[in-house]
Amino acid sequence: MKQESAAQSTPPPSLSPAPSAQTSWEDGDPQTLWIFGYGSLVWKPDFDYSDSRVGFVRGYSRRFWQGDTFHRGSDKMPGRVVTLLEDREGCTWGVAYEVRGEQVKEALKYLNVREAVLGGYDTKEVTFYPQDAPDQPLTALAYVATPQNPGYLGPAPEEVIATQILSCRGFSGHNLEYLLRLADFMQLCGPQAQDEHLEAIVDAVGTMLPCSYLTEQALALV
Ligand SMILES: N[C@@H](CCC(=O)N[C@@H](CS)C(=O)NCC(=O)O)C(=O)O
């Protein structure tokens, strides 16, 4: 994944939404599609893509409010993974992946299982602003877990979320790995990419782990 320089700030509010290059991924057989990742997809897309851009979507905030009983948790101890919450003042950083030709069908088929069937996510069209060209927004597909899905856990104090994350693991690994790799990605985005909710959970985890562990050793534990 190319890491753009952290030069850009958030776009001026006047920017118009992206021209809908592809009004809907369900219409016909799209030849090009952008997929926006903001959770595990930023560090583990696991599908073939032709290009990727670091950037953000406006009008949404990322929250660890989706339960996960497969990838990072179990039926008895559901893990916590992220979803997008509609928030007029929100801005969520992530990665958009461009899939072309055969990659489109393969990516959608794979993500339908990973995100929708196993994760409870629905698809939603969003406007993505590349960090290096926020004046040239793109229409992208995002996977969002709404409050109507059975795995939705909703809001909780960050300390409670941190406790759950420290106690859960699933078929894709420990929930702590999920949190720390997302936090690592946000560090790469630069100082203008803030996520107070994520930072509060990482801080809470830090107070619960022996400080000598909240480094590579923490990842070795998971
Ligand atoms: N849709 C979000 C969240 C995706 C996400 O974290 N989904 C979970 C499904 S519950 C997942 O794929 N987990 C794989 C893993 O944790 O390695 C994204 O775009 O990154």
Automatic annotation (TrEMBL):
Enzyme Commission code(s) on record: 4.3.2.7
Q: What is this protein called?
A: Gamma-glutamylcyclotransferase
Q: What is the purpose of this protein?
A: Catalyzes the cleavage of glutathione into 5-oxo-L-proline and a Cys-Gly dipeptide. Acts specifically on glutathione, but not on other gamma-glutamyl peptides. Glutathione depletion is an important factor for apoptosis initiation and execution. Acts as a pro-apoptotic component of the unfolded protein response pathway by mediating the pro-apoptotic effects of the ATF4-ATF3-DDIT3/CHOP cascade.
Family per UniProt? Belongs to the gamma-glutamylcyclotransferase family. ChaC subfamily.
Q: How does it assemble?
A: Interacts with NOTCH1 (via extracellular region).
| Reaction(s) catalysed (UniProt annotation) | glutathione = L-cysteinylglycine + 5-oxo-L-proline
Identify the stretch annotated as signal peptide in this record. none
Q: Which CDD domains match?
A: GGCT_like
Cellular component terms per the entry's GO annotation: cytosol; Golgi apparatus
PANTHER family linked: CATION TRANSPORT PROTEIN CHAC-RELATED, GLUTATHIONE-SPECIFIC GAMMA-GLUTAMYLCYCLOTRANSFERASE 1
Q: Where in the cell is it found?
A: Cytoplasm, Cytosol; Golgi apparatus, trans-Golgi network
Q: Provide the GO biological process annotations.
A: apoptotic process; glutathione catabolic process; nervous system development; Notch signaling pathway; response to unfolded protein
